[in-house]
Amino acid sequence: MSQPAKQATATATVTAAGGPPPAARPPSTPPHAMTGAGLRPGTETPPVNRRGPMSGADVVVQVLLEQGVEWVFGIPGGAVLPLYDALYGAPIRHVLARHEQGAALAADGYARASGRVGVCIATSGPGATNLITGLATSYLDSVPVVAITGNVGRAFLGTDAFQEADTFGVSMPVTKHNYLVLDPEELPAILREAFAVAASGRPGPVLVDIPKDIFTATISTGAWDRPLRRSVSCFGRTAADSGTPHIPDLPGRSHLTGRLEEAARLIARARQPVLYAGGGVIVAGAAEALRRLAEQAVLPTTTTLMALGAMPGDHPLFLGMPGMHGTYAANMALTETDCLVAVGARFDDRVTGKVSAFAPDAAIIHIDVDAAELGKVKAPRVAIPADAREGLEALREALGRVPPDEWADRSPWLERVNGWKRDHPYRYDRERARRELLPQAVIEELERATGGDALVVTGVGQHQMWAAMFYRYRRPRQFLTSGGLGTMGYGLPAAIGAQLARPDARVLCIDGDGSFQMNVQELSTLAELGLPVKVFIINNRAHGMVRQWQDLFYGQRLSASVFEHQPDFVKLAEAYGIAAFRITHPDELAGTVREALARPGPVVVDCVVRQEENVLPMVPPGAALREMIVG
């Protein structure tokens, strides 16, 4: 969503500083030892006493505890040294990233895996600017993150002081909201409000920029109950367990009855309906409501890349992923539907293809918590500004009131859809896969070896699409990836955050050799933490998606897309103290995968695959979904 559209979700009234703070939750300690992560091992001091005056740095720590924060990701520097001193020995675990982008993406992965707000910290100047790509990643995918940055003292702002940058201005286009703290007495209220804004309505990243002298200033007892002079508002419901105040519902929610009744009649009378779910379904915790609606109304269902797992991948009504690399069944169903029920989806260009040819004959029902999304790309017949879960449950109730004799016969449509699924599954050359290691076969083997139960985190590129296509996801928050911004280098740091959020989960990082090297330094963080993340590199010695486009659309002129030199990923991992394997032939695949998964701690597996393999099917840029290249 554009910045004006997202900022529109932050323009009514929210007060984040009312009522007593919730009790701080003690941090959970994962089974792997947490030492060397930036804090004194084995030392925990009681939370700061909020009844008396304290420093700004201590205020930050206290608010983090109030919000139930267990993990923060960051790198210290001069402007945030007072904060790091306050963190020393506090019952908050700090993960020392090796690059601030890695810290931001780890916080993003933590938030996606847990559904709670992720927190990252950076110093002024280059530390803060290094966060920007990570924050933009969270912004485009609606992920709740609070970034705390230091800056030069207030007296030096605007003087081009050492390591000064306009963090407030630079971050504005890639955050849901941001703050520059100029009054130390406002610090508690600003921090609380930052968590409220990040988690409520359509979630997103919030940045709080704090000059160094604010960290060292003494903040009075009265500041804890002081509201901001200005107020920021969001609509929608507050995320569970966020410790934030109630946020008012969308305006006019009580007046949506007529729209819901109209939507129910359209669905009941449709002969070729499709349920189209986006990432908002997972954000809202609406996966169960989605499945129930699909089963109640017998709706073939497609979920975007960001919503994989919202509908079980083996459910008989599931069509697969739509769009540029979507299934034949999903794309044909979206082309021929007469009633499209879109929930928490933004009609992204990678899904729609040629917009005029997307669901051209459909009556569109669009449910979204962000009213700015309604009609932005496709005009809906019925627009329902509502949280995905609330909207789906209300729609189910309305459908229950439609008389049985008003329901259309869906059997011919279901027969066609099932025929598409049967005749056009995702496929690859299985005969070649006996002779050469193919990436699709690697993903299928990972699903077999993990029983389809792993939490999969990917980078961006061909491997990302193969991971989406050939591993079936059965629950929400099982597949984490950068969908909106398409951030190469996302996989490894996000997998670290995900493993900390879900210590009992089996976390797989499926990455490409190009994407992996963009944040390869976080292997040091992974080794230091001893996390049992298993990294599988789909190594085709190229920026594979770029090579594919050049192969298909640029006359096979491979300009700067194939690597002439690659590191030895096994030796590289071992240099970080991480066990590593290499797979070059199909005969090695099953055994090596199982050996890697059985190893304790982190493991890197270099899967050397066929370079010329393309991701198919593919809808050419600007083409309609029905014009997909099947292969």
Span between termini:
33 Å
Helix content: 25-40%
User: Number of helix segments?
Assistant: 24
Name the structural class: alpha/beta
pLDDT average, as an integer?
Answer: 90
| Total domains | 3
CATH class of the largest domain: Alpha Beta
Within CATH, the superfamily of the largest domain carries the name: Thiamin diphosphate (ThDP)-binding fold, Pyr/PP domains
Can you characterise this structure?
Mean pLDDT is 90; it is low at 1-48 and 231-252. The chain has 24 helices and 20 strands. With 631 residues, the protein is α/β, with parallel strands linked by helices. The strands form 4 sheets. The protein has a 6-stranded parallel sheet with strand order 3-2-4-5-7-6, with helices on both faces. A 6-stranded parallel sheet has the order 11-10-9-12-13-14, with helices on both faces. It has a 6-stranded parallel sheet with strand order 16-15-17-18-20-19, with helices on both faces. Helix 17 (439-450) packs across helix 18 (462-470). The longest helix has 15 residues, at 100-114. Strand 12, helix 14 and strand 13 form a beta-alpha-beta unit.
Give a brief rundown of this model.
By secondary structure, the chain is of the alpha/beta class. The protein contains 24 helices and 20 strands. The chain folds into three domains: 172 residues, Rossmann fold, CATH 3.40.50; 172 residues, Rossmann fold, CATH 3.40.50; 186 residues, Rossmann fold.
